[in-house]
Amino acid sequence: MSLAQHIHTLTRPHLPDGAKIGDNQRPALLTELRAAVYPGSDGGGGTNGGRPTPINAGAVDLLTQIQHDAQVDYMEIHGVKFRGPVEALLQSHVDLPNEWDAYLERVTLEWMDAIESLLRPSKPRRKLGVECPSCEQRFHGPERANCLTANCWGPDEEVLHPAQWHVRCEGCGAEWSGDTLKWFVAAVQSEAA
After folding, report:
1. Quick one: which of 164, 169, 170 has its CA closest to 182?
2. Cα–Cα distance between 106 and 89 in angstroms, integer?
3. pTM, rounded to two decimals
4. What percent of the chain has pLDDT over 90?
5. DSSP code string of 45-73
6. 145, 148, 152, 155: CA torsion to nearest 10
7. Does 20 have pLDDT greater than 90?
8. Contacts for 85-89 with beta carbons within 8 Å, 24 or more apart?
9. Whole-angstrom distance, CA of residue 166 vs CA of residue 183
10. In this predicted model, what pLDDT tens digit does every residue of 30-45 receive, in sequence order?
């Protein structure tokens, strides 16, 4: 995706990845992030002695950070402070020198990934409590995290059949899926015997 596509996704309704023309559009990512600040409400707090609406602190922090970083970058690029919403600020980025274009492309992609992770978190990889057949380690790093993890979730967040899992060693980087998954299972079973 280009910077223009990133800005469009952040600031305007768009089709999600993999969607076809005619599918429902998603709201702009920044619009969805603002709505996530007050989940399950219209954005108002409690009135007449009612309970106040809880605030999603993660959404507030992310939105505040994006607004701050966008202002800092705009000031660095143009030498003046931008007055207006961050959507208008992002849409004003046209005809930038290549180094700014490349930098903002990376930054806006990071913002999109952060918003997607907050709004639509994916289930974590399953930790496998066995030694890696490749490096023969069970744990790695100073936190002693499990080496072997498996992505076992389908797009609907249902558990996939084990033959469709993707296993990776976080210690040595070895990976198993498809036909190589059979080798992995055989290697793990032989060590357990």
Report:
1. 164
2. 17
3. 0.64
4. 50
5. ---TTPPPPP--HHHHHHHHHHHHHHHHH
6. 70
7. no
8. 86/30, 87/10, 87/11, 87/28, 87/30
9. 13
10. 999 999 998 765 544 4
